[in-house]
Amino acid sequence: MRDFDALLKDYAIKYDTACQDFRAGRMSLGEYTCRRQNMDRVLDAIRSFVQAIEAAKGIADASAQKAIILGALDALRVASKANYRTGCASAMNVSPKKLTFSDSIPERSIQVSNFGNNEFSFSVVGLPESFSPKPDTGTLQRAATASVSIIRTLIPPPTNQPVRFHVRTSLLDDEEVEIVLDARNAALYDTWGKDVRSLSLAENREPTVEDAVKVVEHSLPAEITATNRDALRYFFAAGVLTQIGKNAEARQALDTAMAKDPSLERQSATLMLRGVVLYREGHSDGALRAFAAAKQFAGPEDTETKPVADLFSGAVLLSRGDGNAAAQHLSDGSVLKHVERNPDLLTFTERVFKTPNLAATVRRVPVETRPSPAAGSAARQNDSSQAHPPPLPPKPTPQPRP
């Protein structure tokens, strides 16, 4: 009975430790849930042990009594020795942990696997707007694997620091992935734009959607699935055509991409690109709605989309001469943080929206007008609590050529 008492004390200590570790964030929800299930089973075994003792009292054979009691006691020892962790290994694996974007490659992918005991949902967070995950969220059953494409967008990437992002699960697992890109890939859309110009110039005509698709097609990795490939080549083509000022063609390519893959319509990268195209075509109100929708469709852990959407919205309003409204978007401290982290983003925004005074405006916003971290957190919670994001901006009616 002394062994039994010692096991009961061990059980109580480990149960309390598991609860404290979970509350302090030292243990994921998945592992905590698994341990609780194991410990509940052990509690059932303890009850069975007590019942076995009572049953053994009615058996005249002393050796049979001993066998029943020792068998129940051994089951408790095994569970205690394993620290009640049997089957509670980490649930998620992400591979590879480093992605290399070199030359003109616009897409790389990671594999997210569930080798734990519970279903979980995952999300990709922390990617700068120069990259976009597809899909950005998902649900994995036990032993299942999902492929997530990481694609380059029109927005220039930060080149003065490493790019890292995270894959997180509903069970609080967290894996970090690093992105390495070379100088040629950092200027990917400039390179593609020159290639499209050269292709059309050789035939003495203006660039077309087909020209952009042809240039992009040569850069796509062979391992991209057929479904993704068809839509992505038009998505990339839309970015290239925007880069070289072929706005009507860019809108056509973007509409084609979304028709081939409707999920693109609710991704922040698509909405940001649509906003740029709408602005270039003279639809500034539509551009503002697109940037607002990008913020709404961004997940609660997405800290990258909102500052860039606010920067773009502020630039649109500045270009219309509405400095007060622009300040409402540019006053968030995360906007200044983003442009300091990625100076090329500010240069890109000034060029796209023709606002040479944007840099001065961003840096001139008084510090006291920037919301505190607590206020920013509350605002994000309010944003994420809205059940219905604003409707997507309508596609503009094509204007007749003069």
Structure explained in plain terms:
This protein has 402 residues and is of the alpha+beta class. The protein has three domains: 2-81; 92-181, Immunoglobulin-like (Sandwich); 187-384, Serine Threonine Protein Phosphatase 5, Tetratricopeptide repeat (Alpha Horseshoe), CATH 1.25.40.10. It is built from 16 helices and nine strands. It has helices at 2-23, 29-57, 62-81, 183-186, 188-201, 209-217, 226-243, 247-260, 268-280, 284-297, 305-319, 323-330, 333-341, 343-353, 358-364, 373-384; strands spanning 92-95, 98-101, 107-114, 120-125, 131-134, 137-140, 145-152, 163-169, 174-181. The strands form two sheets. It has a five-stranded mixed β-sheet with strand order 2-9-8-4-6. The chain has a four-stranded antiparallel β-sheet with strand order 1-3-7-5, with no helix packed on it. Strand 8 (163-169) and strand 9 form a beta hairpin. The longest helix is centred in the N-terminal third of the chain and has 29 residues, at 29-57. It is elongated, with a radius of gyration of 28 Å. Mean pLDDT is 84; it is low at 367-390 and 398-402.
Total helices: the number is: 16
Rg from Cα: 28 Å
- How many structurally independent domains? 3
- The CATH homologous superfamily of the largest domain is named Tetratricopeptide repeat domain
Query: Cα distance, first to last residue?
Result: 97 Å
State the major sheet: 5 strands, mixed
Helix content: 40-55%
Strand order of the largest sheet: 2-9-8-4-6
Proportion in β-strands? 5-15%
How many strands? 9
Stretches where pLDDT is under 50 for at least 5 consecutive residues are 367-390, 398-402
Overall form = elongated
CATH class of the largest domain: Mainly Alpha
**Name given to the CATH architecture of the largest domain:** Alpha Horseshoe
Give the oligomeric state of the chains in this entry, treating copies of one chain as homo and distinct chains as hetero.
single chain
- Write down the secondary-structure element order: HHHEEEEEEEEEHHHHHHHHHHHHH
